[in-house]
Specification:
- The protein is an alpha+beta fold.
- About 20% of the residues lie in helices and about 30% in strands.
- It is built from five helices and ten strands.
- A hairpin with a 2-residue loop joins strand 2 and strand 3.
Length: about 190
């Protein structure tokens, strides 16, 4: 299958052959940045077992927190689709933004002015140096696709997101969409 070149705003979909990698097995990653010096992304479908309030007790919302990737897992990151409410946001692509003023975000959450459909939080991120991602693409670790979900990417069900992407890819990927996560369970 021919895939696109990686670019800011594109998705990396883990090939079914990635097994045993807790971070990237069956993951869908949004590339937040891609330059000659490297790439940064966030895993969109790996929910952690705690909420934002567990991490920051003075926040009154029970927003889910996702595993963004294996890099800097002690740091909190966020993407959103409300740059008019969050100053200093950086556009990724197609109406999806990264970061911004976190104190404003806390206030928006505490005043019920922002919902989980508008913002997603991550511990850590996924990162690749300048040649690492190309090497992984050449090894058929990822399929690169456009983010056709645009702003609705924040509303996708994490549990079925990878499977849905396999179905959209079609061909032999359809078979993998129903395979067990651990092949030894087959």
């Amino acid at each position: 299958m021919t895939t696109l070149k990686p670019a800011k705003g594109h998705l990396l979909i883990a090939e079914p052959s990635i097994t045993g990698d807790l971070s990237f097995n069956r993951s869908v990653v949004l590339l937040a940045d891609h330059t000659e010096s490297g790439s940064i992304g966030f895993i969109l479908n790996k929910v952690l077992d705690f909420t934002l309030q567990d991490l920051i007790p003075d926040i009154k919302g029970n927003f889910r927190v996702y595993n963004g990737g294996p890099v800097e897992q002690d740091n909190l990151y966020f993407i959103h689709k409300v740059p008019d409410l969050i100053p200093d946001s950086i556009e990724i692509a197609a109406g999806i933004y990264w970061g911004g003023n976190f104190e404003v975000v806390k206030g928006l959450i505490n005043e019920d002015l922002i919902t989980e459909n508008e913002i997603k939080f991550f511990l850590g991120y996924s990162g690749w140096d300048c040649e690492q991602l190309n090497e992984e693409l050449n090894a058929h670790t990822w399929v690169v696709t456009e983010n056709k979900d645009h702003k609705d990417i924040l509303n996708r069900k994490p549990r079925t997101f990878w499977k849905d992407k396999m179905m959209q890819l079609g061909g032999s990927y359809v078979i993998w969409s129903n395979a067990p996560e651990n092949p030894s369970y087959n």
